[in-house]
Each structure stands twice: as structure tokens, then as C-alpha cells.
Queue: 3 jobs
Job 1
Amino acid sequence: MSIAKSNEVVRVDTASTSTLRDDSSKQWESIAPIESGTTVCSDKAEKKRKSDRGPVIRDSIIGFADGLTVPFALTAGLSSLGSSKLVIIGGLAELFSGAISMGLGAYLAAITEAEHFVSEQKRERKLVLSTPEDEEERIYGTLQRYGIEKSATLPIFQTLKKDPEMWVQFVMDFDLRLEEPAGNRAWISALTMGMAYFIGGIIPMIPYFAVKNVTTALFVSIGITAFVLLVFGYTKTRLTVSSHKAAFWGALQTLMIGAVAAGASYGIVRAIDHSSPGTL
């Protein structure tokens, strides 16, 4: 009797343990996809944040670099005429028109990039539905470029076949290497490029507002712009290459480009002024 009860207790305990294990497994199965999905979403958010920041940095560098060199070269050339008023008027005209032009150019480039992405995405959707065999071989070829054998790609492809949208996204990411631009990318690019150009361009003009003598203002502008070009060239190269030696040469290269542009502009305007003194 006691043995039977003991066995019954053992059976009950075993069943209870099995039930607890089953419940625990179900709980882990329900939690695991959530954690995995959260990780994927987090990775996508981090990737999107980095991809959004990259174009802003690129537009800032391009706009600021152009703003430093072009207006500086123009004002240096106009200073050879000996009139501060002429330098200021001509410099401001170029500065505003250049900033607007750079902003519009960046806007149109971003719009074109977005339209190209949408066009390629639509084309890939049609190809996935109409010629899946060709797209399958395309994926095989893409993965083989990374040293992955065809036999190892079969599970990957079987997974992609279950979700045509993921298939299209795979081709866009790894074969075409196109990234979907943000919806407000065009406006951000235009404002970033235009403002960076304006800030870079106003720096060489500051001495002409503060100093009456145009020759003195020219030398002060050269000194300020040379210093800013060195700092800008060093910082830009240091952030992209992470090497002090490369950053040093990048600073010198940026300075030389600005010097050549300013010298050429100054010489051309000076030569035109001497060739036709009555018209200027």
C-alpha cells in the first residue's frame, strides 16, 4: 500500500516535472523570437542612423571646402582692383549665388538618387516574379564572390524564396549595393550643403568688412583662410584616415589647392585689369 502510494507520488512528481519543463520550453519559445526581432530592429535602427549621418558629413565637407576656396579666390582676385566695396559686393554676390547653387545641386542629386533606388527596386520585384531562376543564379553568383560555395547557399536561398520582399532587399543590399535614402534626405542635403558653403565662404570676406585698406585686408584674409584651410584639411583627413601623418599631408594639400585657386584668380583679374584699364 505504501509502495503503491509511493509510486503514485513518484508518477505525479514526474508528470509535474514534465509539465513544468513543457511550460518552460513554451515560454522560452515565445520569448526567443521577440528578443531576436528586437535585436534585428536595433541593428537596423543603428545602421539607418549611421547611414543618415554619413551623407550629412559628406555634404558638410564638400560645401565647406568649396566655400573656403571659391569665394576666397574671387575676393583675392577682385582685391587687385584696389576697391574694398567692389570686393565686398562681388564676394557677397558670389557667396549667395554659390550657396543657392550648391544647395540646389545637392537637392537634385538626392532626388535623382531616390528615384534611381525606387526604379531599381521595382525592376527587381518584376524580375523576382517573372524570372526567378535567373535571379536565383544571380544570388548564387553574388555569394560566390564572397567565397561561399553553391551548396552552402541552398539554405539561404530557400529562406529567401519564402519572402519575395526579403529576396528583393537581399539583391539591393548585396548585389546592387543600393541603400534606400531617407524621405527628407533631399532637403537636409540642400540645407547642409548650402549652409556649409556660406559659412566657409564668409570667412575669407570678414577682413574686408573690418579693414578699410584693401591690400591689408587681402593679407589678413590670406592668413585667416590659410589657417582655416590647414585646420580643416587636417581634421577632415584625420577623421577619415585616422593617421597623423596622412592628416598632416591632407592639411598641406588643402592649403595648396586654396593657394593655387587664389593665385590664379588674382593673376587673371590683374591681367585683365592691365589689358583694359579703361573698362574696370
Job 2
Amino acid sequence: MVRILTPKFHEPPIYNAYLHCELSQPVLDKVQKDWRLGAIDRSNDSRYNMPWSRLDIVDRKDLYGLSPQEIRTRLEQEAKADRDHDDDNGGEYLVNPFILIDAETESTRSVWYIDQWLDEEELEQAKRDSDEKVLWKSRNMTWDLPLSIVNYEIANMDITEDLENSNPQVFEGDDHLYNQHAPQQPQAIQTEDYFRNEAPQPAVVLADPGEWEETRNPDDMNVMPKPERMVRLKQDVAHEQGTMRSTRSPRAAVYCVWTGT
């Protein structure tokens, strides 16, 4: 008996996206479409697992026109009041990073990613007025931002590296001081086509003896480097399980790396 197992995942994180001004529904629909593209959100395709993240667009008119610093401060004050919780950070880290959708979003297909405040050590390398609080923030193509966030979450890279690569002008002068007010161009690590061509997540297939066949012929192998042995479901079994489109195609049931004993 063949069993095809797909890994179980936790629900993806949801990021709040606040409107900086009034925008039409078609613009917001496009933001969601671009986000789903970059987050590999293929809910209508059973070959794909959970998306990397989801976006919740929040329309709060009281936040219209406020600076990112003012918005984060207000959200932190609200979160602190709601939770009735006082911590050593004065409530600063009660709010996760969030997205800001502004008047430039429609024409640029980009949004702001608003991260955390700079800490005391980082502030020594920042340009600011007096005791001004400073935020890490970056302008991103909407479809590209979910991947950047994943990289931040797994510590594959951080927002500083992204800014140095895509918008080095935010670091000013010989001292390389970070200026949160410096203009930024939307950054994109990958093109739209990269996400459109993203392959489905692999499945785990368990098969009994007699339901699969093997090869040790390097010409049959579709990976590099080539292993000593690869296996695949027999064509009639693969067709029955819906893992191949046609029994007439000799490559319809592809070989997989052997992980058994």
C-alpha cells in the first residue's frame, strides 16, 4: 500500500499592514496578491504546504499621516495598556514588526517594513536629533518582502545587510551613520518569476516492496551530485496515486533519492 505523507506545519505568522492614507480596494487587492506570490501562498494547489506568512491589512484612520515612529509608539502604548504589563523595555518590544502601505504603494508595488527600535549600542551609529528614537525600516517590493522576513527570522541575514546591499545611501558620511529619514528605493532580492517558478514542497512517500523500482544508472538521475541509487513508484502505482499525469510518458514518475535501508 502506498501512503503519501506531507509534513504538518504550524499556522503561518500573520503580519499587520497599516494604511498610511486612504487607498482603493483594487490597490489593496494587488498588495495581497503580491504578498501571496512572495509567501508561496498557493491555497488552491494541494501540492503546496502552508505559506510562509499571511498579511492582514488594517485600516485605522487615526494612523493616517503619522510617521512610522509615531505609529509604532502608539501601537506599543496600546499593547501595553491592553496587556496591563510593564517590562524592562518600557513596552517597546510588545509590538512585532509591521508593514506600512502608503501613497507610493500603487505606483511602485512596494511597502515599508517597520522593524524594531535601534538599541543603545546601535544608536551610537545612527544620525538623529537629540534624543530622537530611531527605527530600522526598509522599502521592499511587496512580493519580495515575505522572503526577506523569513531570512530575518532564521537569522540568515538581517535588515542592516539588506539596507547596505540595496540602499547604501542610508548610511551617511565617513562614520557610516544610519539615517532613518534617508529616501530609499524599493529593494528586491528576487524577481517575480522566481516566486512564480517556485517548486512545490516535497512529499514523503512510503511504499511497500513491489510498488517501486530502482535505478543505478546515472543517466536516469535528475539530481546533482548523483547518488548510487534512486527509486520511484512503478508507473501503474504512480498513476493510481495521482503522482503522474500520463502513463504514456516514460518520465512521468520521476526518480527520487533513496532514503531507505
Job 3
Amino acid sequence: MTVAAAATSSDFRYLSNFFGKRASSSINAVGCQPSVKRPIDRSTLLQDRECDLEFYQTFFRDKHHFNYVGTTSAQGPIVVSVVVDQKGCIRVLIRTRQSSERIEHSMSSLSIPWFRKLFGISCLWVLGQICPSLPINSLELCQHPGLPQELIHMEERQIVRHYKFGIYHLLAGQTLEHQGLANPCDSCTPDFIDFVHWLGEPIQLRGWKGYRAGLDVNGGTTGEESIFTKWNEYQIMFHCAPFIPFNPKDHQQVERRRFIGNDIVVIVFKEHDDEEQFDLSSVGSRQNHIICIVRPIPSGSSSKPQSYRVAIAVKDGVGNFSPTDFPSVLQRDDASRDLLLLKLICGERAAYRSKAFNTQLLRTREALLRDVIETHR
């Protein structure tokens, strides 16, 4: 399978697993064994903020510990939490605008001068030994009783629990984004409907009480139906282009672009498993960073596809992401659905670290840290 022509003048690149020979990933769906359903590795799903929150709640919350704050350091606002357990293990959580750092260190491994032992050891001295890069002179002890709970709330506000993914449908002979966005609802094929119903459950938007991802749940202006799923404590809404009202007079389909053009992850369902490539250079939105191209593989024994060929392209600046052993062919079963949703969620998180999003996220985190410090000093 050749992809060079499709990627010409595009800001996207295919992940390495896509470049294997087509023959090696071609399968006959007749007699295929279902994928083995394995539990999702929790460490893969955990976000950085969730790890920080779990670390703080496990080792600091409801235990005697110290919180140091500072706003004048070169690193910007900073909060450092320190606790020593009964076994002499020192745990430190350093929060800055850039990230958090979790440290565990044994008190017995510190080289403590005799005069320190004689006159006492301060937490700041210990911090200076464990974390020599810390701006110790900019830190001050904060004993506000409300600070521990507010730090927990701050981390919780940064955890993403809701995701929105765009989907559009390319019919036979179509290779461009605007073609997929311009296909009316009555052009949906049984394979496409079967695919989106595999991803999630059809829901009626009017009166919907769950996560709506900007869709109109009162007046029907964004369609009557959508696809939604709850997965591993996350809520996912799919912006399905054919389900959003079609305007035959609007070549750009602005209403559909308003949603899908603002989704970080977009699924392109390409009818027919052939050599015809989706033209990545036709993607016009700066917001779209992960493009997942799905093709149904015909089955000789069933009217429905039993497997899908999947290729994932990422915008320049987005690194590789888990699961890195993602296969190029997925069976149509629960295990493969779990794997695909995991890949899409991890892809969106990887996009957060790209230049397009990281600057704004840093500003948000800095504002949260500064507000916590100034409120509880």
C-alpha cells in the first residue's frame, strides 16, 4: 500500500504500523477468531493529573504533611508537598505550570551533618538535598487548613472525563474531506451504520441529559440523533457528520464543520477496502490532529463486515502514543472496540502536548496554581 502520494503537501504523517505491506494485514474474515478480550492496562489510561491526584490522596491526605508555596520563582507559581512516613520514606510532590514531579526518597540515605542532627532538620533543608533545583529561597510554608482540599480540587479540574470525536463517511470514489462532510444522511450505507453502532449507542438528542459535546438537546438544530458511549468512566460523544443537518446550498457545510472541524480526533470511514487513499492534505482544520481511517473488510459469509482495516495519521508535532503495538486490522468484537477507543483517547491526550494546545494548557495550569496560592496564603 502506497501512502506517499496521499501525504504530499500534508501536515500529517501515518504512524509506523501503517507502512507494513498490505498483504501482511490482508485477511479473509471467514473463520477469523475473535480477539482475546484483555483488561485495559490502567496505567495506560491514567492521565498525569490522575496520577498526581492518586499520589496525593494516598500518601498526603489526612496525614500530617507540609505544603510550601511560591509565586516569585523563575518556574512561576509552585506548590511543594512533603510528607515523611513512619518508615522514614520521604515523599515529595512538586507542582509547577509545566508539570508535576513525584519523588520518593529514603531518609536513611541522606548524609546529615552532625550540627543538623544536633539543632534539628528542617523540611526545606531536606527538600534542598533531594531536589537541588528547587527554588528553596522562594518557598514559604502555607498552613491554611483549606489548602489540601483545594489542591485536590485543582487536580480534579484538570482531569478530562469527556471526549468528542468526529466521524464522516466517504463513499466509493471519494477521497476528500469536503466530500465526506457533504454526504447527506440518506447516503449512509449499512456498513457505515453498523460501524457507528459498534462504536456506541444511538441516542435521541432531544431531552438528552448526558454529555452533549455542544449538540443541541432542546431544539433539534443539530439533528435528532447521535452516537454516544460510556467507556471506562469516560463519556464519549461522536459528532457524526451525516446525522448533523445537511444544507444542499452550502458547499462548505459550515454547520457540520463547526463541530467536526473543532474535534481533535476525527474518524474517516472509507467505503471499500481498495487502493484508493484518503487525501490527508484536504483536511482544512487546524484543530484536527488525529485522523483515523477505517475501511470495512468484506466478509464472504456475512452481510456485515467482520473486521476493519485501520490506519492512523497524526499532525506534525504529535508524538507516538499508546498502545504502540496497535494492529492494522481490527476484528468487529468488544476487545477490538476497547483497543480502538483506547487508541483514540490516548491520541487526543498526545495532541494536548503538541504546540497547538500545550501553550494554552500551561496558561490554564499556571492560573489555577496562582489562584490556589493567593487564596490560601
